[in-house]
Design goal:
There is one protein chain. By secondary structure, the chain is an alpha+beta fold. The protein has 2 domains: about 110 residues, NusG, N-terminal domain (Alpha-Beta Plaits); about 50 residues, SH3 type barrels, CATH 2.30.30.30. About 15% of the residues lie in helices and about 40% in strands. The chain has a 5-stranded antiparallel beta sheet, with no helix packed on it. Strands 3-6-2-7 form a 4-stranded antiparallel beta sheet. A 3-stranded mixed beta sheet has the order 5-4-9, with no helix packed on it. The longest helix has 11 residues.
């Protein structure tokens, strides 16, 4: 992503009257989706709430989670002068990010670049395509939390062979892909 300086608006700026731009909004914790839904119902307000989808290991197996890509933040495009108060006091919105009397504007190119990366659903899905050598963790069952390495992806059966240290020996075991989680995805 190319670093572009953010423009800053002041309430006394002459060009504020016609300013329709992207702003960063702070939401209440874990309520970005609620803020986005309320803002989408407002006229002349465009909302961008990028999200991430990933599997989290639980005792009952992997559980797919969808969370905000930027926790407690989302983006909205609106006329600063006409809609700032409505947007600021929308349900689940804590405020519009500002620095004293200056309001940062995000260039359209930044939002478009993030959108192009995420696709039309505005969700980045952490891939579950596994390859030999991937470090994974077993999710669910008696061996929940055991860290292993994939030695072979078994074709057409949605299973993989993993190498694990068990009772002081290295053992290869076949497990279903719905019973493993790629390591390093803990939020």
């Amino acid at each position: 992503m190319a670093a572009e300086p953010l423009d800053l608006l002041r309430p006394d700026s002459a060009d504020v009257d016609a300013c329709v731009a992207w702003f960063c909004l702070r939401s209440q914790p874990k309520r970005e989706h609620v803020a986005a839904r309320h803002l989408q119902q407002m006229e002349q307000v465009e909302v961008f709430n990028p999200r991430i989808r990933f599997a989290r290991p639980t005792r009952n197996g992997p559980l797919w989670m969808t969370e905000a890509l930027f926790p407690s933040y989302l983006f909205a495009r609106f006329n600063w002068k006409a809609s700032l108060t409505r947007v600021h006091y929308s349900p689940a919105v804590s405020g519009v990010v500002h620095f004293g009397s200056r309001w940062p504007i995000l260039p359209d190119s930044i939002i478009e670049e993030i959108r192009a990366t995420l696709g039309p659903e505005e969700i980045h899905v952490i891939s579950t395509d596994y390859q030999a050598g991937d470090k994974v963790q077993l999710a669910g069952g008696l061996l929940h939390g055991l860290q292993t390495v994939i030695t072979q992806v078994l074709p057409g059966r949605q299973r993989v062979a993993v190498l694990m240290n068990f009772l002081g020996r290295q053992t290869t075991v076949e497990v279903g892909v719905n019973s493993i989680i790629r390591q390093g995805i803990h939020r």
